[in-house]
Amino acid sequence: MANIASQKKRNLQNEVRRVRNKGVRSEMRTRIKNARAALTDETVDATESLRAAQKRIDKAGRKGVIHKNTAARRNSRLMKAANKAAAAPAE
């Protein structure tokens, strides 16, 4: 346990940020999971779920919850899966 007042404050701030980031990260993962599920289900239009997932990924990257390159990579992989799913029925 810290003895210095500034370190005690820093520990409290880190805990608050950790809890906030956990919620953001959890929601982002849920949106990605829903978007991927919508891509595999032909009866559902996946456009809205893809848009929501991209929005959460970008926001997490902007806020520093995840690294901006990680956000770009996740967006890229999601869109790659979407394009693959869109091309599959056409073949």
UniProtKB/TrEMBL annotation:
One of its GO terms (biological process) is translation. Keywords: Ribonucleoprotein, Ribosomal protein, RNA-binding, rRNA-binding. Gene3D superfamilies: Ribosomal protein S20. GO terms for molecular function: small ribosomal subunit rRNA binding; structural constituent of ribosome. GO terms for cellular component: cytosol; small ribosomal subunit. Pfam families: Ribosomal_S20p (PF01649). Binds directly to 16S ribosomal RNA. Belongs to the bacterial ribosomal protein bS20 family. This is Unannotated protein. It comes from freshwater metagenome.
